[in-house]
Design a protein that fits this description.
Structural class: alpha+beta
Number of strands: 8
Number of helices: 6
Helix content: 25-40%
Mean pLDDT: 92
CATH superfamily: Class II aldolase/adducin N-terminal domain
Radius of gyration: 17 Å
Largest sheet: 8 strands, mixed
CATH topology: L-fuculose-1-phosphate Aldolase
Distance between the termini: 46 Å
Strand content: 15-25%
CATH architecture: 3-Layer(aba) Sandwich
Shape: globular
């Protein structure tokens, strides 16, 4: 990672992402050593930098990001391994336009809702003013669909499901995995953070509605 950040905007991006990860950890959306994150920069459009496996996100540093090709090949020899879910990040980058950062979190609300709505395989959000915080949405009447995929340790299979969904639903900004967590992304690190905050607020609202029987 270090050889790439010395002379490119990767240095700026990784610092911005580290700030976001600290924010996520403080929110309790990255318990233990869970979650994973990635970014890319214009200088290297065919490379993504993905967080390595097993890192406590309160202690993560720039050196904890591993550069990979879009085919998932590591560009630097290292004893550290990228997150086992790197294939899911790659599927998002390859199936969306202009994505520059991907965030994978494990909030309580997202995890519970992914179980509650798993039979439907979809979580639908409508009528919330904050939906306008998602790119391309300009009215609270919009209906935003978040797909829910079954949890599996078969990452190539899950990555293929991501790819198929995103190719058929290009306006998607988030994906849930049952009992696992949430993926969102954006055209910059700040954009991805904005989307994460929108979704997490709405997940909290929807979960509260479920508890009080008003859904």
């Amino acid at each position: 990672m270090i050889s790439y950040i010395k002379t490119t905007s990767a240095a700026k991006n990784v610092l911005a992402l580290l700030d976001v990860i600290r924010f996520i950890h403080q929110k309790g959306w990255a318990p233990a050593t869970s979650t994973n994150f990635s970014f890319r920069v214009e200088e290297f459009p065919d490379i993504i930098f993905v967080s390595r496996s097993g890192v406590d996100k309160s202690l993560i540093t720039a050196e904890d990001f591993i550069p990979l090709t879009l085919e998932g090949k590591a560009l630097q020899e290292s004893l550290d391994l990228p997150s086992s879910e790197a294939l899911l990040h790659l599927a998002i980058y390859k199936s969306t336009q202009n994505t520059q950062a991907v965030l994978h979190t494990h909030s309580k609300a997202a995890t519970i809702l992914s179980i509650i709505f798993n039979k439907k395989k979809l979580l639908e959000l409508q009528g919330f003013e904050l939906l306008k915080g998602l790119n391309g949405i300009n009215t609270h009447h919009a209906q935003v669909t978040v797909p829910i995929f079954d949890n599996t340790q078969n990452m190539p299979e899950l990555a293929q499901k991501f790819t198929q969904w995103l190719e058929n639903h290009p306006s998607t900004w988030g994906i849930l995995i049952e009992g696992h967590g949430f993926y969102t992304w954006g055209n910059s690190v700040a954009d991805a953070k904005k989307h994460l905050e929108v979704f997490e607020f709405l997940f909290d609202c929807l979960l509260t509605l479920q508890v009080y029987g008003n859904s």
